[in-house]
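Researcher: Please translate sequence to structure tokens.
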Amino acid sequence: MTASGWFAARPSGTENIYKIYAESFRDPAHLDALVREAQTLVDAAVSDRT
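Model: Translation complete:
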């Protein structure tokens, strides 16, 4: 979480995927950037586990 938005990620309970939730306090373009960065972080975390 930051002053301008947040994201959370969790594994799906029914599918072999991670779900990302995000909110921007600025604008839709910022939300898109948050989701892209979150996906990059989640992908790296998941690939480190294998």
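Researcher: Any highlights?
Model: The CA atoms of residues 2 and 30 lie 12 Å apart.
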